[in-house]
Design brief:
215 residues, alpha+beta, 3-stranded antiparallel β-sheet, 8 strands, 36% helix
Length: 215
């Protein structure tokens, strides 16, 4: 990234941060990689010569790959490139534990991760806290597939199917705790957030009206 930008500062326009699945953890992500977002309609050779020369340094397998756009320098078409610019909740597919995180930046994801845009009127921190709760993990364990070794597969079609119960007071409390955890994890990934996470669990039990026996 730095080399390409030094050679041609204009390249920063299409060099964007990207996350792999391994970069996403519970309430935190670590962004360190970049993608050249050469979408259809962008003439790389004409407008970004340094990036074109970089692309041109690869062999014929790159130029003749199947997943490409209208020109070999373009990425294949996608209907949701713009969604990556929006506040979103991100997570990985294979995990024994809920690993949902708020992402407010324009960051793109590789196919080892998923994202969702919160429904209108639902706080993104509340929804993340809810998704990271023990109750939702239990619910998803009942409907989701597992890998060959028993790890839960947090696939989008299952995650989007969980029921959202509304109570503005409890939602605000969960959102505030979720914000605290995100702050702590951004300061120190190893920070002990067991107390606010336990408090979120208790609030979710209240939200769904679970009895002690059900809990």
């Amino acid at each position: 990234k730095n080399t390409l930008i030094v050679e041609d500062p204009k390249g920063i326009e299409i060099i964007k941060p990207v996350l792999r699945g391994r970069d996403i953890t519970r309430y935190h992500y670590n962004q360190e990689k970049y993608i050249i977002l050469s979408k259809n309609g962008i003439n790389i050779e004409e407008h970004y010569p340094a990036i074109f020369n970089y692309f041109n340094s690869f062999d014929s397998n790159f130029k003749n790959r199947g997943a490409q756009g209208t020109h070999w320098t373009n990425l294949r078409a996608s209907s949701f490139y713009e969604d990556f610019k929006l506040p979103k909740i991100i997570w990985i597919e294979l995990s024994d534990k809920n690993k949902f995180c708020v992402c407010l930046e324009e960051i793109y994801l590789l196919n080892s991760a998923y994202f969702l845009i919160p429904p209108e009127g639902i706080d993104i921190y509340f929804l993340t806290g809810l998704l990271n709760s023990s109750a939702i993990k239990f619910f998803l364990s009942l409907i989701a597939n597992t890998s060959g070794v028993g790890t839960l597969r947090w696939i989008n079609i299952y995650v989007k199917d969980f029921p959202i119960k509304r109570d503005i007071i409890i939602e605000d409390m969960i959102a505030e705790l979720s914000k605290q955890i995100h702050y702590f994890k951004n300061q120190d990934l190893n920070a002990d957030t067991s107390l606010p996470e336990s408090q979120i669990d208790q609030l979710v039990y209240r939200l769904y009206g679970l009895s002690e026996e059900e809990i």
